[in-house]
UniProtKB/TrEMBL annotation:
Keywords: Hydrolase. GO terms for biological process: glycerolipid catabolic process. This is Hydrolase. It holds the Pfam family Abhydrolase_1. Residues 39-161 form the AB hydrolase-1 domain. Gene3D superfamilies: alpha/beta hydrolase. InterPro entries: AB_hydrolase (IPR050471), AB_hydrolase_1 (IPR000073), AB_hydrolase_fold (IPR029058). GO terms for molecular function: triacylglycerol lipase activity. The keyword RNA-binding does not apply. PANTHER family: AB HYDROLASE-1 DOMAIN-CONTAINING PROTEIN (PTHR43433:SF5), HYDROLASE, ALPHA/BETA FOLD FAMILY PROTEIN (PTHR43433). The keyword Hydrolase applies. It comes from Streptomyces roseus.
C-alpha cells in the first residue's frame, strides 16, 4: 500500500466533499486551473492521501489537482453491497467526478487499481478527459504471487468482514519488517484508513485485481494522449510488462529512479515534474 510522505495538507489545499450525479466523494484539492485540471484516482487499500505530495508542486505548475477517495474508500461513503463496487460502477463514478470538477476535459490519472478503473472510464467515454496517465498500473491482472496474496486477503475479508481490526492484524503479520512505518502517526493513519474502508469495497476491488483481462488493444484505439509512469521496481506489475504496455498503447513512458510501486509518495517532486511536463504537452480542449 502507498504510504503518504506527509499527512498534513500543504498551504492553500483544502479537503471537502465533492457533490456529483453519483453521490458525494471526499477529495483533497489544490491549485487553480491556469493550465488545466487533473483528477487523481487512488489504488487498492489507498486513498486521496497517497497524492498529498503531488498537490503543491502540481499547483505551482499551474494545475488544479483533485485527489479523490472512491466510493466506500476511506472518507467517501459507500454501501455494504459488493455489486456497488463492480468495475463499471467505479468507472461511472470517475466520469461523474470529472463532470463535477470541471466543465472542460480533465487530465485523468489512476494509480495501480486506480489505473484499471481510469482505463474502464476512458473506454466507456473518453470525452471528459484531456489525457490518461497509468501510474504503476499494468495491462491486466496483477502478478501471480500478488494474486495469491490478494486472494488470501479477499478470503479473510469474506470470512471476517465484521472484524476489520482482526483482518488488519493478520495482514500485517505477513509484512516484512521494513514495511512498518517509522512514524507512529503514519502507522495509525494506515490502520484508521483500513478500518474506515467498506469491506465489500475491498472484496470487490481485490477480485478485480486478480481477474482483470488485458484491455490494452481496446485502449490503444482511444484517441487520447497517454502516459505510463512507474518506479524502477514494481511488485504488482513487473516493469518490463509496463514497458511493453506503453509500446502497445503508443504512450509516453517515464520511470522514476529510486522508486517502486508508489512514485507519487516515494518521490513526489520528480513525479509531479514528469506529470506537468506531459500535461503541458497535451493541453485540454
Amino acid at each position: 500500500m502507498s504510504k503518504p510522505p506527509r499527512l498534513t495538507l500543504p498551504s492553500g489545499a483544502r479537503a471537502y466533499l465533492l457533490s456529483t450525479a453519483r453521490g458525494e466523494f471526499a477529495v483533497h484539492e489544490a491549485g487553480e486551473p491556469v493550465r488545466g485540471t487533473a483528477l487523481l484516482v487512488p489504488g487498492f487499500t489507498g486513498s486521496k492521501e497517497d497524492f498529498v505530495g503531488l498537490l503543491e508542486p502540481l499547483a505551482a505548475a499551474g494545475y488544479r489537482v483533485v485527489a479523490v477517495d472512491g466510493r466506500g474508500q476511506h472518507e467517501s461513503p459507500g454501501p455494504r453491497e459488493e455489486p456497488a463496487y463492480a468495475l463499471e460502477e467505479l468507472a461511472r463514478d470517475v466520469l461523474a467526478q470529472a463532470a463535477a470538477v470541471d466543465g472542460r476535459p480533465v487530465h485523468l490519472l489512476g494509480h495501480s487499481l486506480g489505473g484499471l478503473i481510469a482505463r474502464a472510464a476512458v473506454l466507456r467515454d473518453a470525452s471528459p478527459f484531456a489525457s490518461l496517465t497509468l501510474l504503476s498500473s499494468g495491462p491486466a491482472a496483477i502478478a501471480e504471487d500478488q494474486r495469491e496474496r490478494t486472494k488470501l486477503l479477499v478470503a479473510a475479508l469474506e470470512a471476517m468482514r465484521e472484524d476489520m481490526p482482526g483482518v488488519w492484524t493478520a495482514m500485517r503479520s505477513f509484512d516484512p519488517e521494513d514495511a512498518v512505518p517509522d512514524a507512529p502517526e503514519l502507522a495509525e493513519f494506515l490502520r484508521a484508513r483500513w478500518l474506515a474502508t467498506v469491506p465489500e469495497q475491498l472484496i470487490a476491488t481485490g477480485r478485480i485485481l486478480v481477474s482483470e483481462p488485458d484491455r490494452v488493444d481496446a485502449l490503444s484505439g482511444v484517441e487520447l494522449p497517454k502516459l505510463v509512469l512507474s518506479g524502477e521496481v514494481d511488485y504488482a506489475w513487473p516493469v518490463p510488462l509496463m514497458d511493453e504496455m506503453a509500446e502497445r498503447l503508443g504512450a509516453a513512458r517515464v520511470v522514476v529512479a529510486g522508486t517502486e510501486h508508489s512514485p507519487n509518495a516515494e518521490n513526489p517532486q520528480v513525479t509531479a515534474g514528469a506529470l506537468a511536463s506531459f500535461w503541458d504537452s497535451h493541453p485540454r480542449g
